[in-house]
Amino acid sequence: MTQLPARKPEGQEVKFGLVIDLDTCVGCHACAVNCKEWNTGGHSAPLPDNDPYGTDPNGVWFNRIHTFEAGEGTDSRTVHFPRSCLHCEDAACVTVCPTGASYKREADGIVLVNEDVCIGCKLCSWACPYGAREYDTDAGVMKKCTLCIDRIYNENIPEDERVPACVSTCPASARHFGDLGDPNSGVSQLVADRGGYELMPEMGYKPVNRYLPPRATKKNQCTSGVGAALSRVATEDTPGSAVGSGKFLRWVDRALSR
Amino acid sequence: MHPAYSVIFFTTASGAGYGLITMMALFGVLNGVKLDPWFGAIGFGLGTVLITGGLLSSTAHLGHPERAWRALSQWKSSWLSREGVLAVATYVPLALTAWSWIVEGSLEGPFGLFAVALALLCVLTVHATAMIYATLRTISAWHNKRTVPVYLSFALLTGSVWFHALAQVFGYQTPVQAAIVAIGLLLVMFLKRSYWRTIDLTPGASTPESATGLGNIGKVRLLDNPTMTETFVQREMGFSIARRHSLKLRRLAFLGYCAIPFALTLLTSQAAPAVAVPGTLAAAICVSFGVVIERWLFFAEAKHVSMLYYGAQSS
Lengths: 258, 315
What we know:
Chain A is an alpha+beta fold. Chain A is built from eight helices and eleven strands.
């Protein structure tokens, strides 16, 4: 049924999702690679790989890593930005589906596609603002992140591995999985502590996943090494040197800086 | 948005078909035209071919056309499903009205109710088609108050211009038919102009800053794409057209769906059949060509918000 499940009171609803730390993500793409590796044998298997060794390799990936630059000059930041399904609370990809193939689970809020019912009309991918859905040209159906539904409940793997493949593989621990509907969960605490935010809130689809902003860059961080030594020379009289040499050096510094 | 030819053909053909059938039904029930069985057969026949051809072509872009029947199930939430249900439901009063006209030769009493139901379902089907686009918040050009009126007025125009041409062929033309064509032309002229002005002047609310949440650092720009080749999302949603081409095509579309048919209808509709028949048929063909270009632009000019993740600076 493509109608969204009935809402429960705030705090009683399980909302499984990811929290992605843009401060620590190093843009290594390991999460995307492990996602592809797991999921090409998992719930939505196989994921197509067309022309893998040719000039136009393409196929379905649930997770894509973009790199952005924000700000200008010395204040700018390079931010690696993993992007996958955000398992929205008001998921338009679910309500536009004409067949009932696209659905949101009542138990944990995970958005999935029933591939036996999907007609491959692609309207759900048009409705998703995050570009999270990718069409499988081989199977003729839409595919998307399952939040590794076949890992998180999987009793055949060790308990500490029952997290999405992207989370388990991240070498920088930039990805966290948990229940964002529970204000006391680890991920909710992380969001509260770090000011986690949602993407494109103006769209109104209430994504569950949260992003943690890059921490502010600290200015004048030269407390040791050559930089620190030089900056001190330019601003104060060095003990043991002639009185006034500091002033002279400051004048040289100013003259050269012009 | 990538302009899929199957969807362009579908909306153009089915819009014309539903418009033509609506004209047949309304003129028939209001005694605006003689209930000649041949005229009925050709009019409803052409309308049925147009809507059926359109619906079949729309299944051509599906990954699983054999499962298309499943699309009738989610009418509670999905406009695409509602469109499917309404399109299928329309065949019932279509068959009954055509039978009343062609076999019974009457659209009085209960036969008239079939025709009214038919006209209503035709309008609702085109409305549902337009709502599929108008409800997509991700595409600001379509999520626009003008999308539904534009679709409805194009169906009225293409339907009435083909109806008028057919009436000319059979010698049943009236000034009212030409007047409705003129109303359609004027509506389309103003509404489509207004649509283009709106999409030119009002970009979507989302920006690279809101898409990434990095706006507090400064202006956000893409440094590296996830892949060296295009992903599905880029192929489907990333189609873009140079602005100078789109302006040329807008002018060409306007000539086709408005200016030339306006002149042809004005000059030939009251003339002798030897002039009126080719003149109004040319007007109808001209409108349909214009609408194909207009529909192609409707897709090609529409920007999808997900492209903000792939380097677009506005939505």
